[in-house]
Request: fold
Amino acid sequence: MIAFLFIGQGSALPWVSREVLTDDVVAPLVALASEATGVNIARLLTAGGRELARTEVEQPAMVAVCLGVHRMLVRAGLTPDIVMGHSLGEITAWAAAGAVEHEDAVRLAAIRGRLMAREAARHPGGMVRVIGDREVCEAALRRGREAGSLCITAHNGAEEWVLGGDERALASVLAAFPSTRVPITGPWHTPAIADAAGEFLEALAGLERRPLQARFIANRDGSLPEADAIPALLAGQLVHPVRWVDMIRTAVSADVRRFIAVGPGKTLRALVQRNLGSGQLVEIADSARSIASVASA
Reply:
């Protein structure tokens, strides 16, 4: 079984090689991201720029280029049995499973980015990565909640947690625990984003959907949901944690033997290896050369 993995926000854009960016199956999606944001995404991905740090720009840019790489893999003859994405990557994974048109997924990412950016302006905050077991995580939560609002936003490994909340809570945790700031601009996966979740569900409901061509593992609980349940899970994910540990367990239980990171893969490789050990190979498809190598393996 082959699983395609898709990363979320804060993953070192720009990473796209020129031969990918200008490929015939990629360029239209990048152009669509530009149209949806009013920003020249191709120029940003070539030269970089501070605009890429804007949630409403980064999200459609990431979905466009990752789906473009997915298109290149399919063209080379490789398709997934299972798809899974981390946070924003769920949108990419859903489209890669054939549920919606790739163009609709890029537009959807633009809507998601705008809604989340709006809520971040209304409810300033962010996320911190905490290293330790569950007891350490609970202690960090207690400490942060003495100062402000804080909750678990991701469980990435046995001893890696991400907590999200307001600035006072984050500062309290950073001062007292082995932790680092996550490079995002809002308290994602927390109740602070609840208004965005409701509006995002409306956007999802308006899309024309098709039968899944690959199974989809959900962030919410690591399950393999039926197709009709996925839109509500995608919207609810904005205010619930990413249960990556459970997702990897599900993939292994489903007999996944090849994990392929589609797009920027170093973070995804680390996230898999934290759960399965350094001996687990995670292939990365992020350039014309690596796509050809992965597809021919």
User: Anything to note?
Assistant: The chain has two domains: 2-121+191-296, 124-181. The two ends are 14 Å apart (CA to CA). Strands lie at 2-6, 82-85, 126-131, 150-157, 160-165, 179-181, 215-217, 258-262, 282-285. The chain has a mean pLDDT of 94.
